[in-house]
Amino acid sequence: PYRSPLTAFGTSWPGDPSQSGRLAPWMDTWQGRSSSSSLPRSSLLPVNAQGDFEQADEYFRVVIRVRPPLDRELTSPVWQHVVSVPTNSQICLYETIAEVNAGDRASGTTQVVNTHTFSFDYVYDQDASQPEVYENAARPSVQSALQGYNATVVAYGPTGTGKTYTMEGSRWHTGIIPRSMEDIFQNVTRSEQSTFQVRASYLQIYNEVISDLLKPDRSHLMIREDKRRGVFVEGLSEWLCRSPDEVETLMEHGSAARATAQTGANDTSSRSHAVFIIVVERSDPSSRVTGRLNLVDLAGSERPRVTGATGQRLEETKKINQSLSALGNVIAALTERKARSHVPYRDSKLTRLLEDSLGGNCRTTMMAMVSPAAEAFAESLSTLKFAQRAKGVLTTPQVNEDLDPRLLARRYEAEIRRLRTELAERDAAKGWPAALKAEDMFDPSQLMKSEASTLRTDFSGGRTKGSEEEKAQVGRYKQLLLKQRDIMIALTQRLHERDETIIGLQAELDSRDHRANELQERLERQAMRLAAAEKALQASSKANMASGPGLFPRQPPPVSKQPALPEAPSPKASPDSSPRAAQVLETDRLPRHLPESRIDSPTASQRGLPRSADTSAAKWGHGLLNADDKVLELTSLLETQRQENHRMKLELESMQDAPRKTNPSVASTMASLSGSDATGHYSDFLGRFRERATRSKRDEQDRFRWQPSPARSSSIPARAGF
Ligand code: ADP
Ligand code: MG
Predict the structure, then answer these.
(1) Which terminus of the chain is more solvent-facing, meaning fewer CB atoms within 10 Å of its CB: N or C?
(2) 158 is in an annotated binding site
(3) Reported confidence tier of residue 198, pLDDT bands at 50, 70, 90
(4) Rounded to whole angstroms, what are the CA distances from 623 to 32, 34, 209, 284, 676?
(5) Is the CB of 255 under 6 A from ligand 1?
(6) pTM to 2 decimal places
């Protein structure tokens, strides 16, 4: 229910004057400004009244829980309540300053200087009970896991704000993990069609080392990823559970092994991130889905100043903060919405393990915990800001389905059966004869048989008038039907042949396409080489003009296997270190690109096309050519390339024309197949058949009533009974 900010403000916390009898002085002098307010995400609210994920379930759900003040806080002289929950989607955090000489007065010790208002998918005030929190924050995730989704609930917040209390709970106030287990097993026992398998694992990440909390000897585990399982921990033990009690036992074992320590903020502060993993495999006759529920209790996000950490504690805190800041960076990257921006999942074990939960295939709920105390103001503010940012994270939840071919086949069979019955029902509703079963529609010979049998029963039984004339007519019909059946069979045969021809033609077409593509590619390569050659030629003639006749290395003589592959002269061997040397290399590089075309088209020489090396073959042996010769040689080379390109273009064109020109037999087959002689003949026949039927109907109007089929105009008329 909506509570106005003022009433909520006045009644729901211990700093309230009506409850404690002590004035909360800053309430009277409240002059605070409102800051960092944001509109509620009402249009995106992903949970409906039943607590199910609804529209926009690709968004992170972010909920806040404010814990009640602890006894030791209430007795502290500096105790101040600075959090209020005006509505179940809003939270206000008050920034106060204290009066320096307040000790000698009963009131007026603090003033609010700033109000930070945030809105979230849900905010639990300090009175929220464990069942309430479970119902709204975790139950949707459990249901999702049962449906085959990945779901994650993450508890985030500074030490001592109630993360472990919320996830595990106490003996009398059980938390999310035990409640989820109960919920899962209730669903398992209720379900009649499906069988379930529930497996549990429990791990912790302590100082960036992953260890198995249910098999303490297994530590330094590695995170792996594969297509089927997504991100997973290799070597993590899995335990088959048959009841919530079994899971509880496992959880107790695991929690005992978890690294905890006493800090300034919490007597048993968790020093590690703990992840409880439940895998639910649901199989029914036609599907098998695997849901995965990760329940994550993070280590505290506090700063060392608050907890007074030193030595080992400080080291731990640094590591914890390192992975939590990696988490912050991942969330920042995910909410940036820049296309393809890098998301640093691999910066810490925590973010890598939660990769799917953060930006992948998962329905995720983040629960951020805050303390109501003024002394935790800075932590609370940074927690709320973090949670605010996380609201923008998008994931892509989808059912993890096992696509086993046998299961698929079974599913399709069921689908076909369903469609058939539906069709039969529809036919029955339309008044078609029951003899025309839905299956018969797919099989012409069946159709004929059923038609014939109906005719037979109609003509032989019940009709006492059965004269010779009728019998003769029955005989004629029989003959007709038999003929029709033969035609049907022949047509089916032809259809099969046609299918085969089409398949053959398709294959031929594919291979032609392939060849055409190949040629196209080669043509492009050639064109590129040509361009390069032209460029080199220009460069060399320019240099020639600038520096007078120079000397260029000659093309090597053709060798048997790769005729024009030149022996690349070593740059060092060239005594010339002037710019011309660079051109020597430049022109020299050119032929090195060429051999491929030679290998590709070994027929070039057979066709008598000029060879670049042949033009200067006579001069070979002098070692170097002068510039004119070089230009000549390159020009002829270009000419060769051009001719080769032309030849390939021609070939390509001829290939594109080919199906029409080269395969007249196929074309004629196609024409004959698509031609109307066979079908025309058949429809003529049907026409005649129908005409006769109509005539006979007219003749025997009192006893026969023909009706044209409503659905299939070209086949046998359906009869609506006699
Ligand atoms: P965290 O795991 O965040 O460090 P804990 O869950 O250990 O914090 O909680 C710290 C203390 O606060 C515990 O003694 C716990 O029982 C108490 N506490 C936390 N949340 C609540 C709550 N909602 N109601 C009552 N006690 C709570
Ligand atoms: Mg804890």
Answers:
(1) N
(2) yes
(3) very high
(4) 93, 88, 68, 82, 75
(5) no
(6) 0.54
